[in-house]
Every structure is written in C-alpha cells, then in structure tokens.
Amino acid sequence: MVTKHLSELEDVLSAANEGTDVDNGHSYYSHRIPDFKMRSNEASEIRFTPDTTNEDYERTQRLVREEEGSMLVAGLHLQKRTVDAERTQNSSNSTLKGNKEQVLEDVKMQTSDSKNNIKEMGTSVGQDIGISASKAKAARFSSTESHTTNETGAKITVVKSTGSGTKLQSKDKRLHSKSKNVPFKSDLNTDAKKIDEKTNNRQKESFPYFIDNYCPPTCACYGRVVQCSDKRVDTVPYGIPYSSRYILLMNNRINRIQLDLLREYSTLEFLALTNNRLTDGAIEGAFEGIPALKRLYLDSNQLQSIPRDLPTSLEELRLDNNQVGSMFEAAWARCPGLLILSMSNNSLGNGSSSLPNAVLLPLRKLQTLNLDYNQLTSVPLGLPLSIKEMYLKGNRIEEFHSGAFIGISELLVLDLSRNRLTNRGLFKDSLLNVTHLESCNLEGNRLKKIPQHLPPSLKTLNLEGNLITAIKKSSFGALMNLEHLGLARNRIFKVVVGAFKGLLVLHQLDLGHNAMRQVPRQLPKSLHSVALSHNRIHTVPRDAFCWGNASVSALVRVQLQSNAIDLGNIDTQSFRCLRGFQVVHFY
Questions:
Q1: Contact, 578 vs 555, CB < 8 A?
Q2: For residue 513, pLDDT beyond 80
Q3: Which residues, at least 6 apart from 253, have a Cβ–Cβ distance to it below 8 Å?
Q4: Which pLDDT score, from 0 to 100, does residue 330 have?
Q5: Distance CA 376, CA 393 (A)
Q6: Which residues are CB-contacts of 413 (< 8 A; sequence separation ≥ 6)?
Q7: How many CA atoms lie within 13 A of 101 on its CB side?
C-alpha cells in the first residue's frame, strides 16, 4: 500500500511541476510544492488547485513532514531490527557450536556417571537451544510456540518457523538427539574392552607366534634351544616356536601346563621343568602325544604319583625331590623304551617297605635306575636285566635277596652305601647273577667282615665306614681284577701277612682312620698310592713296600701322617725300593 500511494503522489507532483491537469484538470505550481523523498498516503490523495489557500498549503506541508518523519522512523527501525536479527542468529550459531563442543567433550571424558545426569545434560542443551532459536525468530519472523516435556519432566520450548529458523531447528534437534544418545560410562568401558579383545585377537592371528624366528620376550633363544629358566613365570611362555628341540623352564613358578599345549611340538626332544610348583592335576594329560620327546625333567616339584600319560618316545625321566610314595607297573607300560629313571628323594617304600615285585620289569631297556634316599628296606625284586647302573644310597635296606635279578644281569655299577646292610643280610647268592659288576659301593653299612662271594669282575670296592676289624688272607682271594680298594674308617687293627698280596692289579689302597700298629706286610707291587694316615703305626717293616726281587717300586705316594712313628729310630731300608723320600709323607 505504501508503494502504491507513493507512486500516485509522484504522478501528481510531476503533473503539477509541468503545469498539467490531473484528474479534474487542475494545474500545480512547482514553487508552491517543496521537493521531498518520502511521501505519505494521505498527502497523495489530496487534490490541489491553483487557488488553494495558504491554510491548505500549510496543512499539506505539515502532513508531508509528519509522513516523512514516520517513514524515516519506520525505515530506521526496520534496519535496526534486521541488524538485531543477524546478531541474534550469529549468537545462536555460537551457542549451538559451543553446546555441541561441550557435549562432545563430555562424551569423550565420560563424566556422566548415571542416566539422570545424562538426561539433565540433554535437557539443559535443549533449553539453551530453544531460547536462542526463539530470540532469532522473534526478530525476523512471526512464530508460534508450543511446549513439551522431556523424559525428566523439564519444560522445553519447541519453535516452529520457516526459512533460516527451520535450519536452526534441525540443528537443535540433531544436537539434542546426540545429547540424548550419550552412552553410560559402563557401556563405554564394555565397548572399549570388546574393541581391545578384537584387536588382540587380530594381533594374535597375525603376529608370528610359534614360528621359527620368534622368541618369547621372557626367554632367550639359541637356534632351536629356548632358555626360559629363572624367569619367575607361572605358566609356559606363549608362542615358543613349534620347531624347538630343547625347552628349558627350570627354576620358575609354573603351577600348571595348558592342556594340549605341547602336542604341536613335533620335534621337541628335551623338556626341563625342574624346580617348579607342578602337582599331579596340573600335568594330567600334558605330555600325551608328544611324538619325539626323549628327556623329561620333573624333579623338585610337588608330584605324589608317576604321570600316566608319558610319551612312548621317552628315554629319560627325572622325578627326584618330589613326594612320590608308590609305583605301579601300569605307569611304565606307555614308555617301554625308557633308559634312565631317576626318583631319588621321594617316599618310595613308605608303609610298604619295598616296591612291588617286578614293578619295573616292563622297562626292558632301562639302563640307569636311581632310587637314592627313599625308604626302601630291601633291594627291589624282579629288576630288568638291562640295568647297568643302580643307585640305592641312603635308604633303609637291610637285605639283598637273590631274586633281585632273575637271569644274568648286565649290572656294572651298584651303590648300596649308607644303608643298614649286615653280613647276614647280604646273602651268598645275592650277586650270583651279577657277573659283570665292576663297581660296588658298600660304604656306611654295618658289615663286620669282608663280604664273601663278591663277583670276580669287580674293579672298585668301597667298604669304608663299616665295622670291619680284621683282614684275613682269603678275604680278597677271588678279586683278581680289583684296582681300587677302600677300607678307611673301620676298626681294623689286624692285617694278616700277605692279605693283599694276591691283588695283582691293585693301584689304590686306603687304610686310613683305623687302629693298625704297623704297616701291613707284602703290599701289592702294583700299588701307586697307599693311605695309612690316622692310625697307630709306630713301625714300618722292611717287607712292607719292598719285598721279593723288585728293585724299584711303583709307589708314588705313601701317606703316613698322624701316626706314632719315631723318625729317629726308623729303619731306612724299609724304603729302599722307593724312588725317593719325597714319596713318603710323614707330616
């Protein structure tokens, strides 16, 4: 309407300035009408005539001025409202941006501990957005307001408008939606754990575990030897290459072996688990199916029984320093090729005095048996004939029956030291079938005489620490191959002349710590060393070292310390065949 009226007024004024009539033919004089830019509706409707009075003119001028002023004020106000609206819109955009960044920061830092806090945060954001939007729309558009209530009961203003206001509303809705969908802290932790697990699984699948050139961080690898000892680990390190031949896990804290873990090690030959914390249940089924395992060390653990899943390829088994108290034949049925069995420092024989008869017979290839420091009271019966070395030191053995070996045994080394054997408990036929025996250790028993019926194959005989008092001429008659003889720490005070004469290849003789008063006569000419210290010797007979037609003795060391010899009255002819007095040690 304003534009229309202004157009009409311009037409009237143009006609008046040109002196033409408008509508009713009246003409206007330009000197009577002032020039103006803004014209009112009322002034454009008035018809002026040449004879208009001064009152009408003044009235017209007044109306024009008033209309011009109102137009100017309206234009300035409209411009001001436009500027305010732009400022409000900018402020609203800044508020939206700031609220969005705040919400995102809150999500990242996971400061929302409960669902109520999250709802309150969303409500606050919605209120701020609603206020900013309403200010912007009040400046530029006419708007309608409606009210709704969120989940927490807080009142939120919803603004409906067009134009840029609609865009503002959509931004508000998106931001408010994000604020509502903020996850709980526990949900974030769960999602993070799932992501970590997936990442770890991908890494495990892609990481070169178990391959030839991989070595666990806690181990040191040298070719196909993996050294993981003394690392204080409680499980077998993960990722040891499947191609390993030797795996050493000694001196750790391993208390279990994962089931089926070792089955993939097709080339594993030596597994050492010495000094750990393994129990019977912890190793059940662990060694079954290892095709090439030959040596298994389980000593110094907490085992109470022999593993029943031993691989058939096993050749050496060490179970020393455990708590094994019994042994059954079925335990050895799976490993008939076992060559070395060591079970010292256990509780074998506790309550049963000895092992069951022929319990070790399935081990037909067994060569070394170590049962030291158990509680056996007799030598086990029905032992495999293949045994070459048998160690029974530190038990409570009182008897050695003939049934220990049924058939000719291949035994070479027998250690029965520190037991309770007497001459009566050592039967005549105890070693009847041990025709290849070369070393027999009977130290620390309760023998009072030199045992008879010892095999002539003996090369080393240790009788130290017994109760022997005398040496007869026939004591060693059959031991033609004896090279080392130990008789120290007995109670020998009498030695028959020539008691050692028949030992033609004897090299070493120890008679120290006894009660002899003179050096034994006619000692073997083959001797290289003789120990006679810590006796009561005061005389050295001329035929002790030098007798017969021997011009030079083979002796290189004669020990006579701690005796009662008077060097001022000693007969020097007693040492005439020796290579010099430097051979004899008096002090």
A1: yes
A2: yes
A3: 232, 233, 234, 276, 277
A4: 87
A5: 10
A6: 388, 389, 390, 391, 437, 438, 439
A7: 5
Q: Which tokens belong to 397?
A: 């053995």
Write down the mean pLDDT value for the chain. 77
Confidence at residue 294, expressed as pLDDT on a 0 to 100 scale: 96
Return the number of other C-beta atoms located less than 10 Å from residue 306's C-beta.
Answer: 21
Question: β-strand 508-510 against 529-531: which pairing, if any?
Answer: parallel
Angle (CA) 91 93 96, round 5°: 110
Q: State which amino acid sits at residue 258.
A: Q
Task: Fill in the amino acid letter for 45.
Answer: E
User: What distance separates the 2 farthest-apart alpha carbons in the chain?
Assistant: 189
According to the per-residue pLDDT averaged within each range, which of 3-7, 144-148, 296-300, 398-402 is highest?
A: 296-300
Residues 198-256 pLDDT 10s: 555 544 444 557 888 899 999 999 999 999 999 999 999 999 999 999 999 999 999 99
Q: Which long-range contacts (CB under 8 A, 24 or more apart) does 48-56 make?
A: 48/12, 48/16, 50/26
Cα 355 to Cα 348: distance, rounded to the nearest angstrom: 7
Which amino acid does the sequence have at 385? L
How far is the C-alpha of 557 from the C-alpha of 190, rounded, in Å? 83
Residue type, 363: L
What's the confidence (pLDDT) of residue 260? Answer: 83
85, pLDDT greater than 60: no
**Gyration radius (Cα) of the chain, Å:** 58
Local structure of residue 12 (DSSP, 8 states): H
Contact yes or no for 297/250 (Cβ under 8 A):
yes
| The CATH number of domain 468-587, selected from 3.80.10.10, 3.40.120.10, 3.50.50.60, 3.30.420.40 | 3.80.10.10
Band (35; pLDDT cuts 50, 70, 90): very low
Cα 73 → chain centroid? 86
Spatial neighbors of 185 by CB under 8 A, at least 6 apart, are 110, 112, 113
3-state SS of 220-283 is: EEECCEEECCCCCCCCCCCCCCCCCCEEECCCCCCCCCCCCHHHHCCCCCEEECCCCCCCCHHH
CA pair distance 249, 235, nearest whole angstrom: 10
Backbone angles phi, psi at 335, to 5 degrees: -130, 65
Between 368 and 77, where is the model more confident? 368
Residue count of the chain: 587
Phi, psi values for residue 204, rounded to 5°:
-65, -40
CA dist 245 → 225, 271, 272, 292, 578 (Å): 6, 8, 11, 9, 57
Can you give the pLDDT at residue 533?
Answer: 97
Rounded-to-5 percentages of helix, strand, coil across the chain? 30, 15, 60
Q: Where would I find the beta strands (DSSP E) of 371-492?
A: 389-391, 413-415, 439-441, 460-462, 470-471, 484-486
Please check whether residue 582 is in contact with residue 559, taking contact to mean a CB–CB distance below 8 angstroms.
Answer: no
Contact 58, 43 (CB under 8 A): no
Q: pTM of the entire structure?
A: 0.65
Domain with CATH 3.80.10.10 in the chain: 468-587
Contact of 414 with 440, CB cutoff 8 Å: yes
Question: Given the structure tokens 């191609």, which residue do they identify?
Answer: 243
Amino acid, res. 490: N
